[in-house]
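Hi L.,

You mentioned the student needs an example of a multi-chain input paired with its predicted structure. This one should do, with 231 residues in total across all chains.
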Amino acid sequence: AQKITQTQPGMFVQEKEAVTLDCTYDTSDQSYGLFWYKQPSSGEMIFLIYQGSYDEQNATEGRYSLNFQKARKSANLVISASQLGDSAMYFCAMREVHSGGSNYKLTFGKGTLLTVNP
Amino acid sequence: KAGVTQTPRYLIKTRGQQVTLSCSPISGHRSVSWYQQTPGQGLQFLFEYFSETQRNKGNFPGRFSGRQFSNSRSEMNVSTLELGDSALYLCASSFSPYNSPLHFGNGTRLTVT
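Structure written out for the whole complex:
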């Protein structure tokens, strides 16, 4: 089973509108972290936002917010007031911390290609 | 503060050769990890180092190896290159292996012919 599922291969949004990118995850760990990254065509992976499994409040960073629903195992990214520069690939990722603290790798979803139209 | 620096940016090699990629983490970051990105497989974890120790390794053949130096800089090596090794190799650093964000470099695009 996939650990991170991003069901939207591509999304389109009009400039200045909000958009939600979906992410569901699968883990049996109690302690984990969820990340969103943006990858423009240049290839660099840009960190956007982080949510810890024990965080009670949804994370926000400027125009980015994370809609964290732990019981449903979803961590959707909301981008408000989209800009042309937001056009990029967006990846959801999870970091599990297994007991003994020996596993800290990031598992990525397949990504969602967001296109912002003027 | 300088970001994660990867060198070289582009590399073209032929099958059977070996290659070494370099990564300088953000100053103060002691955890370095490597990822391979291909259109077919997406982003896959290669290995993670912390304080010169390999903490975790992904499901890659032994041709893929790495190391971390005392200044936290890291190198990864791929021996006996195959066409399927063509990919974008991304290095990431973080302050600790715990739930702090990974900061990625621009990557090294390796083409094997």
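You could point out the following to them. The two ends of chain B are 37 Å apart (CA to CA). Chain B has a mean pLDDT of 93.

Best wishes,
N.
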